[in-house]
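Predict the 3D structure for this chain.
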Amino acid sequence: MVISTKAQREGDASSDTPVTQWLDAPTEDSVKTVVTYMLEHPSQSISSTHIVATAKAFKQLADMCRDPDVRTRLADGALAAASSLLLERVVAELGPGTEQSNGHAEHVFLLVQVLRCICNQSADTDAARTQLLEHGGTAALARALSIDDVWRQPVPVAQAAFGAVLNVSLDHKLCTQALVDACAIEPHISALRVHGLGNGAHSVWPLVCSSLDNLCEDAEAAAKHFELHAGLASNMLQALAEITEQLANIASVSGEVAEQFVQIKEQQDADVTAALRGAQRTLLWNLCEVLEKSSVVRLQLCEPVYMHQMFDILAYYVATGGPDEPTQPEPNVAQPPSRPLPQGNRNADATAQMIVGVSGEDAALSMFDDSGLQQRLFAQLAQSESALAAAAALCLGNLARTDAHCTQLAETHPDVVQAAIAWFESGEVRVRHAASGLLKNLCVPAPAKARMVELGLPAVAARNVDTAVVPVQANAIGILRHLANGCAEPTVQALLAQEPGKSQDQGQDQGQCALARLLTAVRSTDIDGIRCEGTRLVAAVAKAVYLKRACDAQDLEARGLDLVAPLVRLVVLDGQRHPLLQQESLVALTVLVAASSDNAPYAHAVVRCLVPETAAVGTVSEPTEDDTIEGDTIEANDADDETAEADDAETTAPDSFTNVLKRLLTQSGPVWPQSTMQAKSLITQLTTQLNVQSSPFDPAGLDILRTEILPLTN
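Done. Predicted structure below.
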């Protein structure tokens, strides 16, 4: 006769539970009884005596929930509540740092089946997802991802865990946000680390990537989470760099002898390579979205080591992204200046955008002094790969935004400046844009201007004042305007020099001087940035010639160029939005009128513009995002550079030149006192010319001047 122990007797007595009874004949009708028992007796359900039966019951429930109709009928809350409760209990038993007990394997078995049940019951069923959220299942699910056994046994533990997260978060904003708040993103990134790529883990990576895409779908919410967890962005970038390095190693062997290729394929078969590429794509685009949304996260990556990693990633994409073909935008179509121009390689373009975004932060300026990063940027700018050179120019332009950095770069690294000028002159579109932006920055500080002139920059910029690539055109005009303030003589000479030949992107005759082509571009453009900057350059030329004697005035006058019309147009169109531009134009007009003679009939041109029909300039509208050229990411701070600022005004018909002068003289409406004083100076000079000019003035304009304008000067 065998006498059982007390524990054995209790186990025998309790072995016949609703769970075991249901397992003998599982039906959908009796599921509620089983689930209710688990909810009322959670400790007994996961005890050593019953844990296997409970796990088998969840396995049966998971299989039943594969049927869409069944899982819809079971989405009444009881199953979700039981799943959430038991998942929380088993996670507590298996959580990080817990020691393996005698029943460890049974707990892992239960964990897998509960996760499978959650995964299946939440598939395309919002009701089940909502019930899981209400009963705390999402928080327990997030904690389950950090259990050590997830990657000890990727199949089936990690497969079940990330599959459950994927289904629960799919198209359910509340569940997704709850998972993010419970720090579910962190274990996803940890899962996509190369050092953990073993035991068949690569087969789970597609699930991890899809789940991570769900969690980061709301980029703004994800960015807030990244802001609160400072190491998250750097961990994601590190994982991306590791995967990229692994893929680069595989690619480097593919061209060697067959034996070596076979050896590498033994370690990295096609499935692993596909998993690596999928993870690389997921990490890149999610990180790119987060960085675009949050300057706080960009600040977290303002370290040279992270910039090196981004350039490593870019180099891989450029090397493996196919031929580097030039991308030509449509003529006269503005491109967003703060972004690298599209380069036909979306991954490389996204990486370049990350580099531009991070390096554009003020905290990144200190990276300019890092010798390793500096030498890397110099080397990439000097090489023949345009995509890498463009990224290097954009990054270098962002890092060299202070006068001290620009001066140092221009004075101590002329070879780098020459490389940028070479790209500006004959590079592909995107690298011309980047290089010209860098050069524009270098022309701002006074000590660097002379060196830029010595290296031949004015002539190159002059050849691009009417290029069809709008960002390059804007940078060329900006370069000349900055140089005209400090190095007026060589700048004006470059604008007046004859340049025979054909423009590389327009195919038009460049036999005219650059100033004539600039005037044509300013007159024909509908882009506010080009019109304003171009006219400011015209004003700078007028002041340089007649005030600073930058060149022989007769040389300018002999060309018969209409310098007055664009200045009048700027006075009329931009007075209220940009009073400083209006004042600049009035100063230039005053200088021209004062210089008028029989050879320089500028006073006559101003008087003709007083007639409304003569000075008609069309309509003006506020610049759109595509039209605005100023405010480039790599643009230096320019205190008087108001062209980039536009108020929210509706499209209006412009006033006449006469009415604008009358408003300035009477100070009607929002008028700068300085503009009023300058308008009076202009009228005074016109009055003087009336007495000294021998040739007759336009009768209609002269009548307006005498009857409507002059009485207001008193």
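Confidence is low (pLDDT under 50) at residues 1-14, 256-264, 322-343, 616-652.
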